[in-house]
Amino acid sequence: MDFLGLKTLTIIKETLSNIKKSKGIDIDIDKIPIDDPLTYELYCKGDTVATFQFESPGMQKYLKELKPSKFEDLIAMNALYRPGPMDYIPQFIDRKQGREEIKYDIPIMEKYLKDTYGITVYQEQVMLLSRLLANFTRGESDTLRKAMGKKQIAKMMELKDKFLKQGQENGHKEEVLEKIWADWEKFASYAFNKSHATCYSWVSYQTAYLKAHYRAEYMAANLTNNINDITTISEYIEDARKHGIQVLGPDINESDQTFTVNKDGHIRFGLAALKGVGNSAANSIVDERNENGPYTDIFDFVTRVNLRNCNKRCMETLAEGGAFDCFGDIHRAQFFVSNDGKTNFIDKLIAFAVNKQNGPQEQFSIFDMDESVHEAANPEIPECEFWSTYEQVRHEKEIAGFYISGHPLDDYKPIIQNFANVTLAQIDDNDFMAVHHNSGKPFFFVGIVTDVFEGTTKNDKPYGNITFEDYSGSWQWRLYGQRFTDFKNYFELGKRLFIKAALEVKVWRNKEGVEDNHFEIKPLQVYHLEETYEKICSEANLIVSIKDISKELAYILKEQIQAHPGNCKFNLRIVEKGGIFFADFFNFSSKIDPETFIRDLDLPINYKLELK
Fold first, then answer.
1. Which backbone phi and psi does 276 adopt, to 5 degrees?
2. Contact in structure between 532 and 566 (CB atoms under 8 Å)
3. 48 and 61 in contact (C-beta within 8 Å)?
4. Alpha-carbon separation of residue 52 from 2, 121, 138, 210 (angstroms)
5. What does each C-alpha distance from 72 to 38, 197, 462, 476, 512 come to in angstroms?
C-alpha cells in the first residue's frame, strides 16, 4: 500500500465546505456518479486547469484529441502520460477515435486489452495475459512483473523460455509469442500498475466533477490552498475569469477567513490571506459580523471590532486591499492622509474607537433631551485624490503578494505571447548573455515600470536605473548617457512598455590595463503597450489541423470574427501532414481588431495563433 499526503484531498474538503456555505448542499464525494456527462465534457474540452494529474498543457492537448467517454480512458491517460509510454498516446487516441484498426496479436487477448484499445498499458495486463496465454501461475506472473520492472535480465530469460514453451503448448505460434514478448520487454521500461493509476484517476475525477458542477467553489478552494504560489494563483484567477467568474477583492461585509463564493456566484478574497491580517483578526471580524450584522460604515466597524486583534497594521492592510470600499463614502487613499504630518486617519479612527470602547460612561438624566451631544464626534474624513490604478494595484501586491484587481499587463497578454520572445526572468538569468550574445538578433520583452532612479556619473553624465516587472518577475536595467536621455520620457512609474533591444559587447580595461569583454543591453525601440497593436500587428494567422475542420468550427469562427471588426487582416491556415495550405471559409472580408479578438477567442480545438 502506498499512503500519500495529498493537498488535493484538502482542496476537495474545502470545496465541499464552500458548496455548503454558498448553496446549502451536502455532497458525499465518494458517491458521485462515475458516468457524469458534464465531467466528461470538461475533460473533452481540456478544461482541466487545477484538476489533479490532468492540468498540464500537454495533457490538455491530448484530452481534447482523445475525448474521453469512460473512466477507463482516464486511467489509461494517467498511466500513459509519462516518459516512455507517452509515445503510444497518438496511437491510443487514433484507435479510440476509429482512425486506426484495433488489432490483437492473438484474438483472446481482447479479454484484457479491450479497454485500452489493444495497447498494453498496465503491469496487470502483462500478468493476466501471461496466465491466459502460457498458463503462468499467479506467483509466476507476479515474478514476471517484478523482473520486468527491475530489468532482471537473467530472470526474464528464464521466464521467456517458459512463456514460449507453454504458449506453444496452448496452440499459439512461436513467432507471435516472440513478438508479444518483445513488446513486453519494451513495455518494461515504463511499466505502470493500473491500481495506482485508478486511484489517482478517481481523485482526479472527483476534482473534475467539482469543477464541472461547482466551478466557483472549487476554484476558491484552490486559491486558498495555493495562496503563496503567485504563478499558480495568477493562472487560477485567469481560468476563473475566462469562465465568467470574477475574483473579487476583500470586502469587510462579505469576505470570510478564506476564499469563498458570494451570492452572485463570484469568488471573494479571504481576509486571512492578506499579509498583516492573520487568522485571529479575520476570525474576530467575521464572528462579530455574523453575530451582530453587517458593518454600516467605517466608524461602526472600528467601534465593534476587537482592537487587540485588529490593530493598526491590520487596518492599514484592509484599507490597502480595498476591504472598506463597500462603505462608499471613503476611498483607500483617505485612510493614509495626515493633516499634521504625524497622525493619519487610521490613527484617528483607532483613538476614536478606543475612546468609544473603553472610555468613561457618562450618566444621563431623563431631562437630557438630546443625548447625541454627549457622544464623541466621528473624526472627519480627510479629502484627497484617489490613488491611480497603478498605485492601487501596487499596494494590493504588497499586502497580498499579487495584484488583486488584475495584473497591469493582463490586457496585453496577446502581445506578450505572440511578440515578446524573452521574459524578464530570462534576461535576469546569469546565462542570458552567454546564450544570446552570439545570435546577433534583437530580442523583445514587455514590462511595467515599477521604479526609476536618475543620477549622474563622476563624469557628470546622466544615467538611470529602471526596474521593470512582468509575470515572471522583475529586472533592473541601467542605461547611461544618450541612451538614457533618448528614452527617459518612456520610463515613468506605471508605464507599460514593449521594448526591442540587442546585446552589445563593450571592452573594459581594469586598473592593470587588462581588457575584458562586458555585455550591455541597448534599447533599439520603445513603445507604449497601448500603441503596440497599431504599430506592429497587421496580420493574424489562425493555424488549425485539417482533422478539426467542421461546419461547427466555421460558424464559431465566423461569429467571433464578426464580433470583433477591425483593420487587421485575418487568415485561416489549415495544416495537413503533407504541408500547409490555405482556405477561406468566409464570404466576407475578414478584418479583425486583434486585441479584442484574441482576448475573447474560444475554440473547442487545439490551435496556434501567429501575429505579424
1. 100, -10
2. no
3. no
4. 17, 20, 33, 12
5. 17, 10, 67, 51, 72
Q: DSSP assignment of 468-500, as one string? A: EE-SS-EEEEEEEHHHHHHHGGG--TT-EEEEE
Other C-beta atoms lying within 10 Å of the C-beta of residue 516: 9
Cross-strand partners of 497:
447, 528
Tell which residue, 571, 538, 567, has the closest CA to residue 557: 571
Cα 597 from Cα 594, distance rounded (Å): 5
- The sign one gets for the Cα dihedral 72, 74, 77, 79 is negative
pTM for this entry: 0.77
The predicted structure's pLDDT at residue 429: 83
609: three-class secondary structure by DSSP: strand
**Set of cell numbers at residue 481:** 548617457
- pLDDT recorded at residue 428: 87
C-alpha cell at 35: 458516468
Q: Which parts of the chain sit beneath pLDDT 70?
A: 1-4, 189, 359-376, 434-440, 507-518, 533-536, 577-589
Q: How far apart are CA 35 and CA 33, in angstroms?
A: 5
Neighbours of 101 (CB within 10 A): 8
Report the alpha-carbon distance of residue 161 to residue 218 in Å, rounded: 54
The residue assigned the cell 546565462 is 431
Q: pLDDT (tens digit, 9 = 90+) per residue, 224-260?
A: 999 888 778 888 998 998 899 999 999 999 999 999 9
Residue type present at position 65: E
Whether the Cβ atoms of residue 540 and residue 611 lie closer than 8 Å to each other: yes
For residues 327-338, one letter each, b for 16 or more C-beta atoms within 10 angstroms of the residue's C-beta and e for the rest, the string is beebbbbbbbee
How does DSSP classify residue 192? B
- CB–CB of 572/544 below 8 Å? yes
C-alpha pair distances (Å), 454 with each of 428, 480, 484, 567? 21, 10, 9, 40
How crowded is residue 349: how many other Cβ atoms within 10 Å of its Cβ? 22
Q: Kindly state the DSSP code that residue 122 receives in the 8-state scheme.
A: B
Q: What is the CA radius of gyration of the chain?
A: 32
**HEC states along 209-272?**
HHHHHCHHHHHHHHHHHCCCCHHHHHHHHHHHHHCCCCEECCCCCCCCCCCEECCCCCEECCHH
Return all residues near 64 (Cβ < 8 A) that are at least 6 apart: 44, 45, 46, 604, 605, 606
How many whole angstroms separate alpha carbon 434 and alpha carbon 566?
42
| Amino acid present at 286 | V
- The 10 Å Cβ neighbour count of residue 165 is 12
Beta pairing partners, 504: 520
Phi-psi region of 135 (alpha: psi -120 to 50; beta: other; left: phi over 0): left
Question: Terminus-to-terminus CA distance in the chain, angstroms?
Answer: 55
Q: Which pLDDT does position 148 carry in this prediction? A: 80
Phi-psi region of 46 (alpha: psi -120 to 50; beta: other; left: phi over 0): left
Cell matching residue 252: 469587510
Name the residue among 441, 449, 446 with its Cα closest to residue 415: 446
Residue type, position 368, single letter: D
Residue with cell 592593470: 512
**Rounded Cα–Cα distance for residues 409 and 38 (Å):** 33
